[in-house]
Amino acid sequence: MPRILDYYGAREADCERISNLISQATGLAFDHRENSFIGAYYKATGAERGQEVVVLSNELEDEDGISLRWPEWAHYKTIVNSMDKRVRDGGATESPSAFIDDLRDKLGTVADLTFLRRYRASRIAGSGQPVDPGAERPPGTRAR
Fold first, then answer.
1. Labelling 97: which of 28, 39, 47, 65 has CA 20 to 30 A away?
2. What pLDDT is stored for residue 39 in this prediction?
């Protein structure tokens, strides 16, 4: 089942502040979470299972130092990923879900956010092949 993902960037590194701005614009409630692989992040879920918004730092720190999760968006310190995993199979021409379109309209009012791109994936970002074999991988993912 394909997923639709929208990516946004903020030049500010304060993920908590960005999640608060998004919450004010959308009414979504964010929870602070920690993950040993991706670090600290904020996550909100939509009204239905599979709808979510994640706010996380573009910087990763490990034993080798600091690297960028999405080097192609180096000037954005915070990345916002909105996702709908419920989209039915329909290929690359599938129309976006109402959840993603509604979010895009609301996030357009947040001055600190810039829309970066929309991506349709056959599986969750970073783990699958694009629906369209000629399409590029989601930003910040590695080829398998």
1. 39
2. 86
Phi/psi of residue 53, each to 5°? -130, 130
**Residue 17 maps to a domain:** yes
In angstroms, the CA 53 to CA 6 distance is 9
pLDDT at 2: 66
- In angstroms, the CA 27 to CA 58 distance is 24
Tell me the per-residue pLDDT of 25-78, one tens digit each, with 9 for 90 and over: 999 999 999 988 888 999 998 767 778 999 999 998 878 888 899 999 999 999
For the full predicted model, state whether its pTM sits above 0.70. Answer: yes
Q: Per this entry, what is the length of the chain?
A: 144
Classify residue 23 by burial, with Cβ atoms within 10 Å: 0-12, 13-18, 19+: middle
110 assigned to some structural domain: yes
Number of domains forming the structure of the chain: 1
